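Support reply, case 0932

Customer input (verbatim):
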Amino acid sequence: MQIPKTLLQNKKIALAVTGSIAAYKAVELARLFYKAGAEVRVVMTPAAAKFVTPLTFEAITGNKVLLDSNEDWSSDHNHIGFATWAESIVIAPATANTIAKLANAIADNILLQTLLAFNGKKVIAPAANTNMISHPITQANFKMLGIADYEFVGTQTKELACRTTGDGAMAEPLDIFYESARVLLKDEFWADRRVIVTGGGTIEKIDEVRYISNFSSGKMASALATALYLCGADVNLIATRFETNIPKGMHTIDVESSSEMLEYLRDSIRVAKKGKLSKPTLMRDEHIHLIKKKPYLFMAAAVSDYIPAHPQNGKLKKELLGDEWHLTLKKNVDILQSIDKEGILTVGFKAEMDAKTAKENARKMLKTKKVDAVCLNVLKNASDFGKESNTIEFITATQEILLPQKEKLALSFEILKEAKELE
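Our regenerated output:
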């Protein structure tokens, strides 16, 4: 999934880098921010400059790095200027020492002074030895910073710089990028709203080694779920195929068959209607809370119209099947038509190959499947599946809106703008 060059356009991000070996990963994080259209400035502690030179960040961002040694009060190149300029500050990596000082409002270097002067959105990605991370005082410091509205991106378990394997490694740059973008792109309409997305082509078993499926890649569903997540929604992505670089903080359910998808979808709708949300985070905890926002369902999955009538256990031997094999199929349940959609706003997806009848079929879908909108995609041939970009016509009972061809994540944000009007 390609990240749009305009995803963070006009956003101002200060990247605060402290003295950890993970500082080299902050270079990639700065690049991700910059390539997504953000203006990026970097502030470093003296210890951080021992791991990565300021020149490296300056080459990537095009901006001078703020250091203890170059603070300038004739411009905004100082801790007050940075704090005033930034829309968000991302501390990555954040050492246990820096976390302790932040929790106690100690400001004995330029980075800490900048953070103490900043009252905007803050994201922090810790990096430390396992024992340092799990120490009761460090854990208490985490709680203190949580009260101060710091958004944490949890550590990961892997081999650390101290040659031991354990929890404490900084999250991957892409994970920090997504959580930082989510803070900046939060949309109050979608924030904490339960949204279910289905995707991918279902896999219907013939025997233990064969199946029938279709060309659907699941990329549109992954992109749509990612856009919703970045807008603050509580997303549940139920799919047969996923993009590899979707946010880890997003809840996903991996399914294969249409019957399995239907089972999980019904459960998810039932929970969503009750208003109970489960929000897994990178800190590996779950918060259950109640909301009153109406849930949404985006049915982007390509569900098999027909399935094998008699799926077999084991492997069917070709010696027994003979020269011709007549596979008997039966009509599959129509998931979108069969589910209870009362109390949930529903957007269906329809792929057509005949441009002449595509809109007519999409309008029939509105009525026969009782959905609030249809995202129509007119394909030329099988090679259109799996492409990085797409064109969608958003069709409701009263209007037809053509959304021009864009990368699928960028297109997803356009779909969400139209979907907001359904409520």
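We compared this against your earlier run and they match. Two observations from our side: Residues 258-274 form the longest helix (17 residues). The chain has two domains: 12-183, 187-422. Please reopen the case if you see a mismatch on your end.
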